[in-house]
């Protein structure tokens, strides 16, 4: 009786040489690829973090310098090398800024124009967004494109026309002259329109069956759903009006009608370029309200912009 002797392969055939294509050679190659991918990932993440840090410092350093200079003495401001930390903090800059320029009046003007302008613009935005989203109106498509096209035009294009208009109406150096020309922008309307398009039409059909007209559908069905987006749009609009500089500068010529951004320029013209402590204190007074507003509402603002960009 014959026996069969099993054939034993050479050891080298089983283990193989890494990367030579023989059995067993794939594992080391995969490990090298995994390590290479991991190294590239670490490098890309490190580069991204460095870029983010540099970008953050680009914005943070000027803000820190403004706040620190506002409480520095004149000797600290002009010292060399630079004193990043105030040696002897003082509030004298704020006292001089408040005494030199009527910041109380500037603050009232900014609050009135920003609040009233935001309310009026949001009212127009809500009604126009509802009309474009749910109503049948002639030439709705071309009208919508035309309104959105106005967002592409620089605001300075209409400065001369708006100035002539309010001058003929006798609105120079008035609240209505500061507010009315700036309430017809399309930004808030576009955000609300994008939100309203996501609402199921079955909700409106049910409301119509119950006898609801357009106003009742808007206030009872649509607006409660769009409140988060409306709040976001209102915050963005308010910040834009608060920081407006060119139009208030053109539409007003008296100090008692100037807003905070113009008030900072007025302070600098009074104090000159030598008293940087007072000028920086004025900059803090002007920018602090918006910095606080953005700090507490940044999630709503960023979320609203992202939602408006993604929904279509």
From TrEMBL:
Residues 107-297 form the ABC transmembrane type-1 domain. It holds the Pfam family BPD_transp_1. GO terms for cellular component: plasma membrane. Its main location: membrane. The keyword Mitochondrion does not apply. Residues 18-27 have a biased composition (Gly residues). One of its GO terms (biological process) is transmembrane transport. SUPFAM superfamilies: MetI-like (SSF161098). It is found in: Cell membrane. Residues 1-31 are annotated as: Disordered. InterPro entries: MetI-like, MetI-like_sf. PANTHER family: ABC TRANSPORTER PERMEASE PROTEIN MG189-RELATED-RELATED, SN-GLYCEROL-3-PHOSPHATE TRANSPORT INTEGRAL MEMBRANE PROTEIN ABC TRANSPORTER UGPE-RELATED. This is L-arabinose transport system permease protein AraQ. It comes from Corynebacterium provencense. The lineage of its organism: Bacteria, Bacillati, Actinomycetota, Actinomycetes, Mycobacteriales.
